[in-house]
Write a structure and sequence with these properties.
65% helix; 4 helices; mainly alpha; single chain
Length: 147
């Protein structure tokens, strides 16, 4: 007889899988979602629901959308500022008309000179805003500056 040491002991049962599925996920479906799921499962021709779900998950491309909140806030504030610039432009035209209508030409020209100084400062501020926006877009949004 053979010794017990030389024999392989068979404990019974099936052989263990090499890459065992051990992670479990549970989800719930409504009645309508379940009907839709079952119809998709039946038309697939697969005989294992778990494998069907896995094939759906990993054979389809999943797109991720990342929302950059600071960039959105910056864009929102910039849009508001742009609206204010437009309003200033409209007001500018109205002021020029009122000056020429209500004052003498000499007095209107003096006021327009003051207004022109403020406009130059505002144009300078506008250029700075454009430069900052281009810098922001190139650093954080990956856009190239437009020429």
């Amino acid at each position: 007889m053979m010794s017990d040491d030389n024999k392989k002991h068979n404990k019974g049962g099936r052989k263990p899988k090499l890459n065992r599925s051990c992670h479990r996920y549970v989800f719930r479906l409504t009645d309508q979602e379940n009907v839709r799921f079952l119809s998709l499962y039946e038309t697939s021709g697969m005989n294992n629901r778990a494998k069907f779900i896995i094939s759906l998950l990993f054979q389809r491309e999943i797109r991720m959308v990342k929302v950059d909140v600071p960039a959105m806030d910056y864009h929102t504030q910039l849009t508001k500022l742009f609206g204010q610039f437009r309003a200033v432009g409209v007001n500018y035209n109205q002021i020029v008309k009122i000056l020429y209508r209500n004052f003498s030409e000499k007095k209107a020209a003096a006021y327009l000179f003051k207004l022109e100084k403020q406009t130059v400062e505002m144009a300078s501020l506008c250029r700075q805003i454009i430069e900052l926006t281009q810098e922001f877009e190139s650093k954080y949004l990956g856009k190239r500056p437009e020429k």
